Amino acid sequence: MVYTAILVQAEPGQEARARLKCAADLADRFDALLIGLGAEAFGGAPFADALTAIQAEWLVSMRDQVEADLRAAEQMFRESAGSRRSQWRTRRIMPHEAMSLAARAADLIVAGGFAGRGRGDYLSADVSRLVIGAGRPVLVAPPTGDCVLGKAVLVAWRDTRESRRALADAMPFLKQADRVLVAEATSADDLPRAQEATAEVATALGLHGVAAASEAFVLRGEPSRALIDRARAFGADLIVAGAYGHSRVGEMALGGVTQDLLKQDEMFVLLSH
Question: Does domain 152-272 have CATH number 2.60.120.10?
């Protein structure tokens, strides 16, 4: 797999610059087309009676605000894209829906990159929905810092279809990495199986020219915390993981590795579903 086109959502405001810079840097690295998308919708009106003058004024005001935001987003994208090969698209629907549709033209999506939470699904793409609906790998950027280098990559392995998909989707990063570790956290009883599985994955990566080590360790505490701690000890700046091996609703209700990886803001995460 190669990344020939990279998709990123542009938004008004300085907070989006880190994400846009990251997408532009990756376009340079992989000699890829950079696709910028401006997408915004406005929520329900404050009154149920669609005939009221107040609501009509509100709808006009919201429409004007959306158009102003989209113009500002385009300007920010074009500043970040510079002279690179690029395309710009605009959609007036929910951002995660617009991004999922636009993903048909891309190989990689760059998302995240905001220090704050709660910007609203009408303005910013819901990353969890994007991961499930796009059918493409999603690189989730932390809110600050440079773009992912991917010199040391931790593959958070679980013996699931999502992990296999993530491994294939991350291959361009893995082939450029200096060090790769395939790691699985498991119970003591399951340790022999996990050791065998991670070793086989590392061997398979070797067939693609990726020199990878393997490791299985006994889980103590929260799985996501254990993986992040192991990634930090390994010196990784990128975690590759399969997303939502359980249902999204179940993970949100009970907690799960995917949700925790989306909430952390220490390092880049490449997720595939």
Answer: no
Prediction pTM value: 0.90
In CATH, what class is 5-141?
alpha beta
CB-CB neighbours of 266 under 10 Å: 12
Summarize pLDDT for 195-224 with one digit per residue, the tens. 999 999 999 999 999 999 999 999 988 888
**Is pLDDT at 250 greater than 80 in this prediction?**
no
User: Is the pLDDT higher at 125 or at 145?
Assistant: 125
Give the integer Cα–Cα distance in Å for 59 and 219: 53
Chain centroid, CA 59 distance in Å: 32
| Length reported for the chain | 273
What does the mean pLDDT of the chain come to? 88
Q: How much is the pLDDT for 46?
A: 55
Domain ranges of the chain: 5-141, 152-272
Are 228 and 266 in contact by the 8 Å Cβ rule? The answer is: yes
* Equal CATH topology for 5-141 and 152-272: yes
**Burial classification of residue 146, based on how many CB atoms lie within 10 Å of its CB (0-12 exposed, 13-18 middle, 19 or more buried):** exposed
Compute how many other C-beta atoms are within 10 angstroms of the C-beta atom of residue 258: 25
What distance in Å separates the CA atoms of residue 67 and residue 78, rounded to the nearest whole number?
17
Q: What is the pLDDT of residues 107-134, one digit of tens each?
A: 999 998 765 455 578 888 999 999 999 9
CA pseudo-torsion sign 195, 198, 200, 206: negative
Pairwise CA distance, residues 100 & 168, whole Å: 20
| Amino acid identity at 137 | P
Rounded distance between C-alpha atoms, residue 10 and residue 75, angstroms: 9
For the chain, how far is it from start to end, CA to CA, in angstroms?
A: 16
- Are the beta carbons of 148 and 234 closer than 8 angstroms? no
